[in-house]
Specification:
Layout lengths: L9 E5 L8 H9 L9 E3 L9 H9 L3 E3 L8 H15 L6
Helix pairs in contact: 1-3
Length: about 100
């Protein structure tokens, strides 16, 4: 799966085990970098039950950005929609 990570894209992996970096915080830090103003983004959503620690380790090795979506555990079928909406909102692409 992690072979799909493109070196030029921002790869985001939401993971319930990430306690330090939230999506908002991570995107805010990237927004200060002019080369990352509107990057191509690849979003990887885990299966029901979440990512295994080994999978997250492999994603980190490939420079994926591991982020938290907060204290709520979202269902696999809604996590992608919620994360994509949050990213679009961050970049001002939802009219806000």
């Amino acid at each position: 799966m992690w072979g799909y990570i493109k070196p030029w894209a921002l790869s985001i992996v939401p993971w319930e085990g990430e306690g330090g970096v939230g999506l908002h915080q991570a995107l805010g830090a990237l927004h200060n970098d002019p080369h990352q103003a509107h990057p191509e983004i690849s979003l990887f959503i885990g299966p029901e039950g979440g990512w295994a620690d080994e999978e997250v380790g492999l994603a980190r090795q490939r420079s994926a950005l591991i982020v938290s979506l907060g204290p709520r555990i979202l269902r696999a079928e809604t996590a992608g929609l919620v994360t994509a909406a949050a990213i679009l909102y961050h970049y001002g692409e939802l009219g806000g």
